[in-house]
Design brief:
By secondary structure, this protein is mainly alpha-helical. It has 4 helices and 2 strands, in the order E-H-H-H-E-H.
Length: 70
């Protein structure tokens, strides 16, 4: 089992749903091709989780260290 946590990925789904492309999505997004390549490499390496893209890893790193609300 592999958990893939890519963050924002520009796809036709967003356009079809009528979502507007924003600065955050444009700046922090990872291409679908990059997500697939990273996921296949992680799967071959036997990893349990992968976060494609350095920006997504950066967000995950800092958000895990933020204070919890409880």
């Amino acid at each position: 089992v592999l958990a893939v946590c890519p963050g924002p990925v520009p796809t036709a789904f967003g356009r079809r749903a009528g979502l507007k492309a924003g600065v955050v999505a444009d700046t922090w997004s990872v291409s679908a091709q990059h997500v697939v390549t990273d996921a296949l490499r992680a799967l071959a390496a036997g990893r349990a989780q992968t976060i494609p893209g350095w920006r997504s890893r950066l967000i995950a790193f800092f958000s895990a260290r933020l204070p919890k609300p409880w």
